[in-house]
Design goal:
Helices cover about 25% and strands about 25% of the residues. It is an alpha+beta fold and about 475 residues long.
Length: about 475
């Protein structure tokens, strides 16, 4: 069984072989180090432990080096591929005996529309059919060869494979013939946003496992054990293509089609925007009311702006909510999704943050010298949220367990920062948005929860479910059950 997990515990990683403890540690450490491009020492040194904490597949990499070596040998010798009978393929078979396979999405994740999920899954399967002799067809009902299912917690795969909520295990899949891939329902699945985990990329990786592919040591391969974001480069590496073609042959045209990530990224954005616009005309409530957004802020007119992926919504002071609006239409030059956003009443400018860069706009015009590297401003990469904080007269950025104070006049971090987030009594790490209301109170958000921070008392004075409890978020018309049968 293949498991994608974040922050795997090293002891669990070393429990999958019935050898003596020292032999187990040495062999598995060597396999892990080989796949991770580390010096092969067989020891749990500091570099190995740090690499184990990176997003990756949580199963043992035992056998991956042998399988990859056999694959490369076939390339250079033109010989027959040796029959592999490893620990998983012995009972389940290493490939499908047919070339036409059906798939089915059994149920659906939260926070994404069914239409965009269906298109993302279709693209994940097509990624593999473009470079192999396989043909995939969706089977909306009835039996299917490969089934994709979203679960929470223990789902009868054994206690060790129970999903553990946000973070931790993302998904796992079985090799051919069982034909199942399971995804954690509690994860924040996304198609465009940087926050959360890209459903298309995780699905494409898991589909590879359901076809019989093991992990690859090639750093940028889709079947690398490490979770990959959707970037601009080609999604499938040469090693991914060789692996699937050795199992199922070349495509009928004999010309593999390799798509760069930027093409798929643009398609996902287009699909999601179309679905959002369609939903806004029928559902009556914006999609972010389900509990997920990338950033939130408020302008000088007390209009709340909520950002998600390539779009944003405005909520007027009287509670009117706009349809989803393209982010780059108002702020040309921004990336398609941002991680943090804040309007500053001090200089009436908009600040946006993503990855290593910071953008500053006056109205809809990008200021000269921007975007700038966040490190040049003394700011962190990938901030959780940003907001203007009047008691300090500066902008504040949160990242994990620390916060940074940014002087907007000097465009540099204030001395003696960053500091520990414990200064903000009651505020949890990992908040994904923050804004100050006209009464001076600061509201911070994390998934469906909010915390109200009182600057005078220097502590959280209220918390709850923001979509239900805060009418100014534009979600106050969420239908409530009346328990009438």
């Amino acid at each position: 069984m293949m498991i994608i997990t974040f922050l795997p515990e090293p002891p669990n990683f070393l429990q999958s072989r019935p050898h003596k403890k020292s032999e187990c540690c040495s062999c598995l450490c060597r396999d892990f180090q080989w796949l991770s491009h580390l010096p092969i020492t067989g020891e749990l040194d500091g570099a190995t432990l740090r690499q184990m904490a990176e997003p990756r597949c949580g199963v043992s990499d035992e056998g991956s080096q042998r399988i990859w070596s056999q694959r490369v040998k076939v390339i250079f010798t033109g010989g027959r591929r040796p029959q592999h009978r490893g620990r998983r393929s012995a009972s389940q078979g290493e490939k499908w005996s047919k070339r036409h396979l059906t798939y089915q999405v059994v149920n659906w994740p939260q926070h994404l529309s069914r239409g965009s999920v269906r298109l993302a899954v279709q693209a994940a399967f097509q990624l593999w059919s473009n470079v192999s002799g396989l043909v995939f067809q969706e089977a909306p009902e009835g039996p299917a060869d490969i089934r994709l299912t979203f679960y929470e917690g223990d789902h009868n795969d054994g206690a060790s494979n129970a999903f553990d909520g946000p973070g931790g295990t993302l998904a796992h899949a079985f090799l051919p013939r069982r034909g199942e891939a399971h995804f954690d329902m509690a994860e924040r699945w996304t198609l465009n946003g940087h926050k959360g985990h890209n459903l298309f990329m995780v699905t494409a990786h898991e589909v590879g496992h359901t076809l019989g592919l093991e992990h690859s040591p090639v750093r940028h391969a889709l079947m690398s054990p490490y979770y990959r974001k959707l970037g601009r480069s080609l999604v499938l590496s040469w090693d991914d293509i060789v692996a699937v073609q050795q199992l199922y042959g070349k495509p009928l045209s004999n010309r593999p089609v390799r798509l760069p990530g930027q093409v798929l990224h643009a398609a996902l954005q287009q699909w999601e925007l179309a679905e959002l616009q369609s939903q806004s005309q029928t559902a009556g409530l914006p999609l972010y009311c389900q509990g997920v957004f990338d950033a939130i802020t408020m302008d000088q007119n007390e209009t709340v702006l909520v950002f998600r992926g390539s779009v944003y919504w405005t909520v007027s002071a009287d509670g009117g909510v706009s349809s989803p609006l393209p982010l780059r239409q108002r702020w040309p030059g921004l990336p398609q999704a941002i991680e943090a956003a804040a309007f500053s009443p001090l200089d009436s400018k908009w600040y946006f943050f993503k990855g290593r860069r910071t953008w500053r706009f006056t109205g809809s015009v990008l200021d000269p010298t921007f975007p700038r590297m966040s490190s040049d401003l003394g700011l962190p990469r990938h901030p959780d949220c940003a907001f203007y904080y009047a008691p300090l007269g500066h902008m504040v950025l949160f990242k994990r367990s620390r916060y940074f104070v940014f002087n907007l006049k000097l465009l540099r971090q204030e001395p003696y920062y960053p500091r520990r987030l414990t200064d903000w009594t009651g505020v949890p790490p990992g908040t994904n948005g923050a804004l100050t209301r006209p009464d001076g109170r600061l509201y911070l958000f994390k998934d469906r929860q909010f915390w109200r921070f009182d600057p005078g008392k220097l502590q959280v004075t209220r918390d709850g479910q923001w979509a239900e409890d805060l009418s100014w978020t534009g979600c106050s018309n969420i239908p409530q059950s009346n328990n009438i049968l």
